[in-house]
Target: MICOS complex subunit MIC10
Amino acid sequence: MLWRVYAYTSRDILWSFLTAGNMADELGRKWDRCLADTAVKTVTGLGVGIVCSLLFFKRRMWPMSFGSGLGLGMGYANCQHDLRSLYLIHGRRVKDQ
Model:
């Protein structure tokens, strides 16, 4: 069995140019989702850091900083992946007969 991957057809490319306004709206939605996701992960990391600081580490500051840094890093990585998905070429597989 051989598989070939076909990228965009001319109809798909034309459709993407015609719907440029929708692409701007989608980019705005992705940024909103990105900022909300990063904020939630940062605050959650900070909360886990506070709990660990109170229970295990004699009220030190580094668990809070570490937790919020982890949350910020995970949010940044998710944003990077989500925003780069605009530029990925999505193909479809066609079975060769």
Confidence is low (pLDDT under 50) at residues 1-6. The beta strands are 3-6, 92-95. Residues 25-88 form one domain. The radius of gyration is 21 Å.
